[in-house]
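Chain A, query sequence.
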Amino acid sequence: MYLPKSQIVENKYTNGQDFSRSDDGSDYVGFYWLDSKGRAFSGKNPTDLPSISLLPQIEESGEEAPDPLSNSSSWVTDYDPKITSKTPGVVPQRYIPKPTEDNYDIGEFQRYFTKKTNQNIYFEISEKDFKDLNNKNKRLQWQLYQGISLPWQISGDKELVYTTNKNIVRQTEEQQRLPGFSRIFREDYLQYYKK
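Chain A, predicted structure.
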């Protein structure tokens, strides 16, 4: 693909916090280039193949990543006007669960995640945000996010806990068609485990 140099920005670099790959949803680390519409692609320039389309990630604040081609902090979106309003609600907040002693006695607790409906971006959320997403509560931007719930083993035989959690994640990924969901666990299926 040939693009005039005046219509691209070459040799940009990201450490993995700006974009995810469109093909598998994983964090992208490396060189990238931008076209005249602000779209990002892997490689130093259009001739550096393979050129994979990159998707902007959500920052910790819950806001969209800024447009790298401008100094403006707004990001252009193509959302259907029917899903926007004067008070669109807020983005579900990232959450770190804290299992209780009762959870450890039982051996498991419920974890909640969300996926942005138009991108393979996942993060953990609270039970309240999960319920509000499913109930289409106007407090949240429920039109743009999907709730995911799964049981998580935290005590018992270590190998069995690891295998059970891994299988639950893989099964959830397949049944709910969540590309790249298992990657967010980074093979750590013993999170929150205690003997």
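The first helix runs from residue 101 to 106. The chain has a mean pLDDT of 82.
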